[in-house]
Design a protein that fits this description.
- By secondary structure, this protein is mainly α.
- The protein contains 17 helices and no strands.
- Helix 3 runs antiparallel to helix 4, helix 4 runs parallel beside helix 6 and helix 6 packs across helix 7.
- It starts with a helix and ends with a helix.
């Protein structure tokens, strides 16, 4: 490391003020602080002023995402070979899925970091650290066969509209990764829905007779519309609810395995990076709303056991990695409970009452992102009033 530090120090004057490449100072600073802990603190937005700075915090989140990402790569290969009737090794499944996923990750980071660096150079400030996580989250919530140009377009929209217009990292109102996913779903709905989106099968490749690549949520929506019981149409092609727990079902690249996601959740909670209060309250909100629907009954959505909502679709992925975004989430302790609970409730309501958008967790999070500042304001005002009452008493 000393050799690397010496080489960076030799190059630094060239990029510092007065150097030949001083106009690239922000880009050089981004690379330097990625390798070494910076000797300065932040001035706005997210403030972490100790040895675990913002970049190191983002790195912990990236590590927490890896189990879901690695499993997602394997599952893409597994779903493909299952669809075409081939039995291959674990490594072959993983290799196929990795080849499908890496281009999406490269485009996401390439476009996002390019825009971040351009903004940094234009404004003359250091490159923000937040895209270390956003650049990985965006590919993880995408369908397997999403066109790369759509990934680039969504990433650009997320960085510019979802973050930079608010002032950059630490100032954004909405979760950037969810902004990218929502942009594509609204603007390019046919490419983001349907059976073929979730399993990477090229045109002309024959599949096993009776194969369906529809997601669990898609099957439930069809069952509800056709008046069928949830037990007949919950999953497709011989799978069970435990396959949703393991993750061996079609879906977005890294959202299917509850077990892999919970491994990441454990790391976030142990390190204190992710709020367990938001995670738990989101789960409680989902169970609460699902339980009420169970009491009402009447169709596939209403009759399905409430806890099933937690393990299908992107509920758990959103709960662990999206609701806990330290910028767009509620900041007060009581506000975290309120914020998470309403996300869980809204997720179930959107799934059940909006057949055109069965995956409700992302829309629910974005909606509560908007209300998070209001929740914190009301909590703070409530605390002030209670303290004033004690003083007067």
């Amino acid at each position: 490391m000393k050799f690397l530090r010496d080489q960076v120090d030799k190059l630094k004057p060239t990029f510092s003020e007065g150097g030949k490449l001083s106009f690239l100072h922000s880009t050089f600073d981004a690379l330097e602080t990625f390798l070494f802990v910076p000797n300065h603190t932040t001035h706005s937005g997210g403030h972490i002023r100790d040895g675990i700075d913002l970049k190191r915090t983002m790195f912990i989140v990236v590590i927490a995402l890896l189990p879901a990402l690695m499993f997602g790569m394997w599952n893409l290969g597994y779903q493909f070979h299952r669809a075409v009737g081939m039995e291959v090794s674990v490594l072959e499944n993983f290799w196929y899925g990795m080849l499908q996923t890496l281009p999406i990750i490269i485009v996401s980071y390439g476009v996002g970091l390019g825009i971040e660096m351009a903004f940094a150079q234009f404004k003359g400030h250091p490159v923000n650290e937040g895209f270390l996580v956003t650049g990985l989250l965006i590919p993880m919530v995408m369908p397997a066969d999403v066109p790369l140009w759509m990934v680039g377009l969504a990433t650009a929209f997320a960085v510019v509209i979802g973050k930079e217009v608010f002032g950059g990292t630490g100032m954004n109102l909405l979760n950037p990764a969810l902004t990218a996913r929502m942009f594509l779903y609204i603007g390019y709905t046919p490419e983001m829905s349907g059976d073929k989106c979730w399993v990477p099968i090229a045109d002309g490749v024959a599949t096993v007779d009776g194969y369906s690549g529809a997601t669990t949520l898609g099957n439930l929506s069809m069952a509800s519309g056709e008046g069928k019981p949830w037990s007949d149409s919950l999953l497709s092609w011989g799978t069970t609810i435990m396959d949703s727990v393991y993750g061996t079902i079609p879906g977005s690249i890294a959202e299917t395995s509850v077990i892999a996601i919970l491994i990441g959740a454990a790391l976030l909670i142990v390190t204190g990076v992710g709020s367990w209060k938001i995670m738990l309250s989101t789960v409680l909100g989902g169970l609460f709303m699902g339980g009420i629907l169970n009491m009402v009954g009447g169709n596939a959505w209403y009759d399905m056991p409430a806890w099933y909502h937690l393990v299908i679709g992107g509920f758990m992925f959103g709960t662990v990695f999206m609701t806990t975004d330290p910028v767009s989430a509620a900041q007060t302790e009581r506000g975290k409970w309120i914020y998470g609970f309403f996300i869980g409730v809204l997720t179930i309501l959107i799934r059940v009452f909006n057949p055109g958008y069965p995956e409700g967790i992302m829309m629910a999070i974005l909606l509560m992102n908007v209300f998070a500042p209001l929740i914190d304001y009301k909590v703070i005002q409530s605390n002030i009033k209670m303290r004033l009452k004690r003083v007067k008493a």
